[in-house]
Specification:
- By secondary structure, the chain is α/β, with parallel strands linked by helices.
- The protein is 28% helix and 22% strand.
- Strands 2-12-11-7-8-9 form a six-stranded mixed sheet, with helices on one face. A two-stranded parallel sheet has the order 1-10.
- The N and C termini lie far apart (98 Å).
- InterPro entries: TraW.
- It comes from Erythrobacter ramosus.
Length: 198
């Protein structure tokens, strides 16, 4: 068998060669940042970012798609999950095998009702504040920090609508409370401002 050998050949210059004239990308970025710093644009952008961040904390993005309840609706929500993997203790002992159905309410009860409401709607806010003092007040719209300061109560916010989506809530105000091994979810109709609704 013959071993193939690679041979390099110089074919010479085949066309016009031009020098590289583009500036280095990192140099361009550095020059742009330096110019922004000198002009005060960096400081202005940082102030704008700070302003937007503070505004988003004080008034988070409202949960999309929720409306004021116009029809009462109530349903049972089963929080039972089926485990996808084994659950083991710190010493490797099997606590729950994969495929086991587990209801978290069996070991950790819901200690207080969850109230979902629009903090910008005075009727819904008044309704929420009339409920149990132990209820968790969860805004889907509004300014939680401002309300906490004014009402001296803790307010939460359903960031990104994760909880309302999980419980299939479509209208507010809504209440979630434990009923045995299930959760009862209710959308509640409030009288409107003109008092025409019961």
């Amino acid at each position: 068998m013959l071993a193939s050998t690679a041979q390099a050949r110089d074919y010479g210059q085949q066309g016009t060669v031009f020098p590289v004239i583009e500036r280095d990308l990192l140099e361009q970025i550095h020059a742009r940042l330096t110019a922004m710093e000198k002009s005060g644009e960096t400081a202005r952008l940082n102030q704008e970012l700070k302003r937007r961040t503070v505004a988003r904390v004080e008034r988070p993005e409202p949960v999309a798609g929720l409306v004021r309840a116009e029809a009462a609706r109530k349903w049972a929500f089963d929080p039972t999950i089926t485990l996808e993997t084994d659950i083991r203790g710190p010493k490797g002992e099997l606590i729950h095998a994969r495929g086991t159905r587990v209801n978290p309410l069996d070991s950790v009860p819901l200690r207080s009702e969850l109230l979902f409401f629009d903090g910008d709607d005075p009727d819904q806010l008044a309704w929420a504040l009339r409920q149990s003092p132990n209820a968790k007040l969860i805004l889907v719209r509004g300014a939680p920090l401002e309300l906490m300061k004014a009402r001296q109560r803790r307010f939460y916010f359903d960031q990104g609508g994760k909880l309302s989506t999980h419980f299939a809530i479509r209208a507010v105000p809504a209440r979630v409370r434990q009923q045995g091994r299930l959760l009862e979810v209710s959308e509640i109709v409030l009288p409107n401002a003109k008092g025409s609704r019961p």
